[in-house]
Amino acid sequence: MTTATVRTSETPSTAGQAWTPRLWGALIVLCAAIFLDALDISMVGVALPSIGSDLHLSTSALQWVVSGYVLGYGGLLLLGGRAADLLGRRRVFLVALGVFGAASLLGGLVDDGGLLIAARFLKGVSAAFTAPAGLSIITTTFAEGPARNRALSIYTTCGASGFSLGLVLSGLLTSVGWRWTFLMPVPVALIALLFAIRLLPRPVEERVKGGYDVLGAITGTATVLLLVFTVTEAQGAGWLSLRTLGSLVVVIALAAAFLAIESRTAHPLVRLGIFRNGAVSRANLIAFTMTGAYGGFQFIATLYLQHLLGWSALEMALGLLPAGAFVALSAPFIGPIVDRFGTGRLLPVGVLSLTAAFALFLRLDEHSSYPVLVLPSMLLLGVGFALAFPSVNIAATDGVADEEQGLASGLVNTAIQVGTAVVLAGATAMITAGSAGGDSPQAQLDGYRPALVFVTAVALLGFLIALVGALLDRRRKSITVPVADYDYPSAGLDTTRAEVLTKR
């Protein structure tokens, strides 16, 4: 283990101080980056048939156009978050954003399927560094409280907009040509990079003795990479195949080694004590289930609308627009709502709205109409993501020390990506098993319905976790004793005891 001298803190804003144009500009730059990161997860969905036809890719190869990005993104997020803490958040963000733009350009120009998948993996790797670095820049720049909640609400709503608008933009761009789904992010990333160099706060120079947890980085990254790879490939290899089971055994062994290393090293990649914060742990579980269920639902809805109902790419874009538009338009209002009601109350409401959206889609049949089936689910999805996505990110970083904000950001983003990969793999397996390889409308429906039940159940689990968190939060507040409510002599309490009760 080596000792490193690093820059670890950004210039914080003062609580209650008016935001300057420069501060607004920095936030917009960070929002542009997270929008692109989230957008790339879903934007190639509608373009896949065109990509397969043009580049002569098999179905399994096409899966890797999507999975390659998720593998790079989800597999390296923990390393990206810790690198931001150790090497400097601004530096990591700028380099990774530049790589993202270059990989986007490469993906739009290649004529080989293998190079396209490699470009997607590289984009995922770069996003694994921009996402935690950007989130931790916000949490260390804006003072904890209303200012940070407002900034995080705007930032994470932009991320949610990227998730929900990905299919919309994919449909519009694919109607012109699939390569535009890769080329569109290039100028946005370049402009964001130029403004980021000028606007992002420069770190305060601090000489801090830290260390590089090399073994933890190797075992942790390998664990997540192999887990995502295993669940992605399980559909083709078989869940009970020797290959899949052997990979899972290796994942468990790597995870055990990682935990043992992190519990003993002086400067761990992931300080295990962070999970003693119940709110942070619950937020990561909610992020896993919420975004995992949405990823599975998005895949099912795309197949259903395109293959069974025969929607075109443009019809897909217009049909899914209400969800994305609601999330995008709600960005300015979420911060005040979070301040008023708190993440503990908003998370159950938001995740319940998502669960209801998936449950309503179970009414699908061979001739479902847009107003009856699709529109209600899209509106509920918009409400759910607008409330839950900012709230879960705030909860996942709230109360975490500045020097571990990159770690906390990496953890929640890892939960999002791994959740998407795991639930999507499960939904895909159920579609294949339910349809039994048939192409008739009834065979397709027999595959979609159990997969929809599965993603609804996963979302329901997230709701229950959020509900438990809300009840615990309410219980904790109910036993808080305000100091001003006591006449200390008559109440039999001294000042010190009252202060302790107030802080519980």
Automatic annotation (TrEMBL):
Membrane topology: Multi-pass membrane protein
Domain called Major facilitator superfamily (MFS) profile: residue spans: 26-474
GO terms, molecular function: transmembrane transporter activity
Localization annotation: Cell membrane
GO biological process: response to antibiotic
Keywords from the UniProt entry: Antibiotic resistance, Cell membrane, Membrane, Transmembrane, Transmembrane helix, Transport
Range of residues in the leader sequence: none
Presence of the UniProt keyword Transmembrane helix in the record: yes
GO CC entries: plasma membrane
Protein name (Swiss-Prot/TrEMBL): MFS transporter
Native source organism of the sequence: Streptomyces kaniharaensis
